[in-house]
Amino acid sequence: xxxxxxxxxxxxxxxxxxxxxxxxxxxxxxxxxxxxxxxxxxxxxxxxxxxxxxxxxxxxxxxxxxxxxxxxxxxxxxxxxxxxxxxxxxxxxxxxxxxxxxxxxxxxxxxxxxxxxxxxxxxxxxxxxxxxxxxxxxxxxxxxxxxxxxxxxxxxxxxxxxxxxxxxxxxxxxxxxxxxxxxxxxxxxxxxxxxxxxxxxxxxxxxxxxxxxxxxxxxxxxxxxxxxxxxxxxxxxxxxxxxxxxxxxxxxxxxxxxxxxxxxxxxxxxxx
Length: 272
Hints:
Helix 3 runs parallel beside helix 6 and helix 6 runs antiparallel to helix 7 (102-115). The chain has a domain at 156-272. The protein has 13 helices and no strands. Helices cover 64% and strands 0% of the residues.
């Protein structure tokens, strides 16, 4: 067990190396390291890699010596190498589809795979969309009995006006070429609740790049969550109002505008 922990921590150095080939070599080892030990070992390793610390637990060492936590996965999202970012998202997809205890890690990994939908490279964005569709397909197969009635009776959401609004009539932002499959929408909805409130403050961050990424994550989260977003509108709309009047960054303004249109399509006015 200790050997696996040491192997995992040894990846921290290549993860932050200045050469892309070294960073990629570390990523290629990640899956094997995550599967070579017990569940508790892999959970602890993953928590260290994303800089997670239980707010209810303060290490004794922190009282007399300063410590830092680095989110290595966040570094990969902003990596300057296109091939390195592509490998990162493929690795996240591998962990989310093949890892034996993937459901225990899904909540921490899923936001990173969503960030690939608004990567600077169109090829990566398309790849990530396909990965999320694969995750959704696996979810449907593993929950076939629960979803059988929904799929067999072709349940239509109320916002589709009983099926009058067809998929071909909807305009989706790239790389989403069609309505995400049922499994992808269900998986995304289950994790939107965990980070949506964190977006409220970041939407008004003084750092422009943070507001940009926040607007992008909100847009694609709304695309997958659909009418599920109704329950968050009280605080979400207030945060959006402050951004829609700020037209300095055209991309942020465009993302917020698209999000508002989607909310208007998916959410019933009487619901809020």
